[in-house]
Automatic annotation (TrEMBL):
It comes from Thermophilibacter immobilis. PANTHER family: ATP-DEPENDENT (S)-NAD(P)H-HYDRATE DEHYDRATASE, ATP-DEPENDENT (S)-NAD(P)H-HYDRATE DEHYDRATASE FAMILY MEMBER. Keywords: ATP-binding, Isomerase, Lyase, Metal-binding, Multifunctional enzyme, NAD, NADP, Nucleotide-binding, Potassium. Bifunctional enzyme that catalyzes the epimerization of the S- and R-forms of NAD(P)HX and the dehydration of the S-form of NAD(P)HX at the expense of ADP, which is converted to AMP. This allows the repair of both epimers of NAD(P)HX, a damaged form of NAD(P)H that is a result of enzymatic or heat-dependent hydration. Catalyzes the dehydration of the S-form of NAD(P)HX at the expense of ADP, which is converted to AMP. Together with NAD(P)HX epimerase, which catalyzes the epimerization of the S- and R-forms, the enzyme allows the repair of both epimers of NAD(P)HX, a damaged form of NAD(P)H that is a result of enzymatic or heat-dependent hydration. The lineage of its organism: Bacteria, Bacillati, Actinomycetota, Coriobacteriia, Coriobacteriales. This is Bifunctional NAD(P)H-hydrate repair enzyme. K(+) binds at N57, D126, S162. AMP binds at K432, G433, S434, A435, T436, G460. It comes from the Bacteria. Belongs to the NnrE/AIBP family. Belongs to the NnrD/CARKD family.
Length: 537
């Protein structure tokens, strides 16, 4: 796993390193060398343009330029100001040193001059704005960024692509789209989520000092990016000595006359993820449609109200069915009513591993008056509970319906409000988004996200079905629930990639993802077991 640090904590690591004898100047030199090294490693770099800003990110650029020059690279530094005019002491010193060593600066070029220069470059080193950037990009960097993106040269961003917030993952209107980002000390959340996924290219972490590893861990990472090898403990051990029930039995409670498909897809996804026996309990008026779509899955008709929404009259049947299975999913396509709130509440009180998704979460929000963290007794139970909200659902759970989290870090923080008030290891929250965070009481995990093809109606229902299936098969129980959740997200993401490969990135529908869950799970499993033997998933 790789630690991900909030920006303010990266700064704390910087301070801790200086206390351990590694000065900021030394760090800047190592950062510059690391950037130069990675640039050379790209191969075929004879002409490099280094665009520098006026802060320490620019300082890294001047050091990199001097290092590249010393390696015989034809390097030109583009700067808004003469080195002597740079106000920051450190940045000015490294700029003066680079010029003294023979690096030639181009000060305040016109757009045409810059475009001409970039047209001759094999690579551009982007050292304009780093973690000190905020707001919209001001001149001249907005224009420089446009020129970089329009040039054909490979762009290597130092620490963070200029224009991206390394904390929130939001890009300004002008933002470098890099081929590679060499980031200092540790991963930052904004590099991994939202716009960050579009603009960072491949990410290389430069630790800069041998003490960094332990200092980063001590700085309390906001999350950990998982590696495939981390999932070894949550993949069900292969055995032939099973029957359809011991392979995991699942009950899906959901669907409504308005949305019958969500529960059908969830049930199907649960079977495709490996549960041996799946049952769907759904309103009576949609049971026949559901059964027609689910030949292998028994469908139990439940009492419903005039709108075709599950009614509280079905509670006893649902609880009886729940007692007979290894795990339950409630919520898919269920709608919010007095009846569905009562069902969700009854299932949470039942001692069975449970996944709550979609309207099940909205029922939970209603049950707790939009303040789930204030009612920890609701989620505190003996059996595992996994909540799978997207950002709007998460907002409703924590009293922020009108202002749901709009960054990964905000979503992690909201999820933490819930798991920390609960305080136990039997609760995991899967905060879904373009990058998904799986949050438990001890840590938050960031599985590798799938492609944007997953942003399609029903893809969350598929994930919920997969989640309950993994739970039913015993993954995570008595072990690490958060890691199990991350593993399921990883398989979901990979299934999205497989479906996109087969059908085209724009064509994927949720049912296509269901069809390849098994292949995705096998492929991820193989990578986990034999990391050296196969290409990365
Ligand atoms: N944290 C660390 O331990 C290390 C940090 N280093 C570098 O230092 C960087 C942070 O340095 P700084 O704090 O000086 O910040 P930056 O260099 O990222 O940015 C500060 C400069 O950008 C300007 N600026 C801010 N917002 C702007 C906007 N919207 N439009 C135009 N200009 C804007 C400021 O006026 C200032 O000149 C990191 O990103 C990294 O590259 C490295 O030198 C080594 C180690
Ligand atoms: N841009 C994206 N890139 C990768 N995955 C995405 C993206 N957008 C959504 N997803 C994933 O797709 C799923 C969507 O779930 P959800 O919003 O609940 O959809 P629905 O309610 O339609 O089923 C989540 O697993 C989410 O992480
Ligand atoms: K940068």
């Amino acid at each position: 796993m790789q630690p991900v640090l909030n920006i303010e904590d990266v700064k704390c690591v910087e301070v801790a390193l200086t206390r351990e004898g590694v000065s900021v100047s030394e760090l800047m030199h190592r950062a510059g060398y690391a950037a130069a090294q990675e640039t050379i490693a790209l191969g075929d770099v004879e002409n490099v343009v280094v665009l520098v800003g006026l802060g320490n990110n620019g300082g890294d650029g001047w050091v990199a330029a001097e290092a590249l020059f010393a390696r015989g690279v034809n390097v030109k530094v583009v700067t808004p100001l003469e080195p002597d005019q740079i106000s920051g002491d450190l940045a000015r010193q490294v700029a003066q040193s680079a010029v003294k060593a023979g690096v030639s600066p181009l000060v305040g070029p016109s757009r045409d001059e810059l475009e001409d220069l970039l047209s001759t470059a094999d690579a551009v080193l982007d050292c304009m704005l780093g973690t000190g950037f905020h707001g919209e990009v001001r001149a001249p960097f907005d224009i420089w960024i446009e020129c970089v993106n329009a040039s054909g040269a490979r762009a290597i961003s130092v620490d963070v692509p200029s224009g991206l917030s390394a904390q929130t993952g939001r890009a300004a209107q002008a933002c470098v789209v890099a081929d590679m980002t060499v980031t200092m000390l540790s991963l930052k959340p904004g590099l991994l989520a939202d716009d960050g996924r579009d603009v960072c290219g491949s990410i290389v972490v430069a630790p800069l000092a041998e003490q960094t590893e332990h200092l980063v861990v001590e700085a309390d990472p906001v999350a950990w990016r998982t590696d495939l090898s981390d999932y070894l403990d949550v993949i069900p051990a292969p055995t032939q000595a099973v029957d359809k029930f011991t392979r995991g039995s699942v009950l899906v409670v959901g669907g409504s006359r308005r949305f019958p498909g969500a529960a059908i897809m969830a049930a199907r996804a649960a079977a495709r993820m490996g549960a041996g026996y799946v049952t769907l309990a759904t309103p009576a008026s949609v049971a026949a449609i559901a059964q027609a779509h689910l030949l292998e899955i028994p469908v139990v008709p439940l009492p419903e109200d005039a709108d075709g929404v599950l009614s509280a009259d079905g509670k006893d049947v649902v609880l009886k069915l729940a007692r007979g299975v290894s795990a339950v999913l409630v919520g898919s396509g269920m709608r919010i009513s007095g009846g569905t709130v009562a069902l969700v509440s009854a299932l949470i009180e039942q001692d069975v591993p449970l996944v709550v998704d979609a309207d099940g979460l909205n029922c939970l929000a209603r049950l707790t008056d939009g303040a789930l963290p204030d009612f920890p007794e609701v989620t505190r139970r003996n059996a595992p509970l996994v909540l799978t909200p997207h950002r709007r659902e998460l907002g409703r759970l924590v009293g922020q319906a009108k202002t749901p989290p709009d960054s990964l870090v905000d979503a992690l923080e909201d999820a933490r409000k819930i798991v920390w008030s609960d305080g136990g290891s039997n609760l995991a929250i899967v905060a879904k988004g373009s990058a998904t965070g799986c949050v438990g009481v001890d840590q938050a995990l960031l599985p590798k996200p799938g492609p944007c093809a997953l942003a399609t109606a029903g893809s969350g229902d598929v994930l919920a079905g997969m989640m309950v299936s993994a739970l039913a098969q015993g993954s995570g129980q008595g072990g690490d629930l958060t890691l199990m959740a991350a593993y399921v997200c990883e398989v979901h993401g990979y299934a999205g990639s497989l479906a996109a490969e087969r059908l085209g990135s724009r064509a994927v529908m949720a049912t296509d993802v269901i069809d390849v869950i098994g292949l995705a799970a096998d492929a991820v499993g193989e990578h986990v077991m034999f990391p050296e033997g196969v290409e990365e998933a």
